[in-house]
Description:
single chain, alpha+beta, 7-stranded mixed sheet, 8 helices, 9 strands, elongated, binds iron/sulfur cluster
Amino acid sequence: MKNSNGDSLPRLIDEPILMLSALQHYAFCPRQFALIHVEQVWAENRFTAEGNILHERVDSGVAEQRKGTRYERGVLLKSERYKLTGKMDLLEIEQTDPPKYFPVEYKRGKPKVEDWDRIQVCAQALCIEEMRNTQITEGAIWYWEVRKREAVQINDELRASTIFAIENAHTILATGKTPPPTNKVKRCRACSLRDLCEPDTFRKDHSARYINEIFKE
Ligand code: SF4
């Protein structure tokens, strides 16, 4: 199995490991996640291209120390427990005893009501907690379009949503089954996979099949 970059997905025994960056695809739309990570289709639009450029810039930096904080960029992460792997943009480490870890993700857009981006930060926190034997209560997302840093509370609710997304994404990878289109129709307008997914055709076919079934009985 390969990811959207064409790289083979790493495996633990027989179970594929989930890329951290794939979680936002699942949170946005489980069908989008399956199209990219199971069916291997990928369509770039202006938003995804700008996002990639932003991440390349952020990841190319080196670690630095300013006052009491160390800034590590492009940090590799993994979790044996949740079968996750990936790279994070920035890890701020307050040099206290014990050290305080603070994950920061860079996004090209603006803050959202939905948890798509926050779930990715929380998944990063789960990896850091496991790797560095610590507890994380807060992270942040820096939004390029509005030049704003938004705090992310790593609370029980966000942890539960994140673990739910991780488990469901793993189920899709394991079964290889692509879910139907999201019922959040507005999301399809911003989706780079709309032409490949054909959600309207799927919904029309599904409605026609449903009506046929009713009249059959
Ligand atoms: S077009 Fe809509 S249903 Fe299809 S992958 Fe995108 S968001 Fe999901």
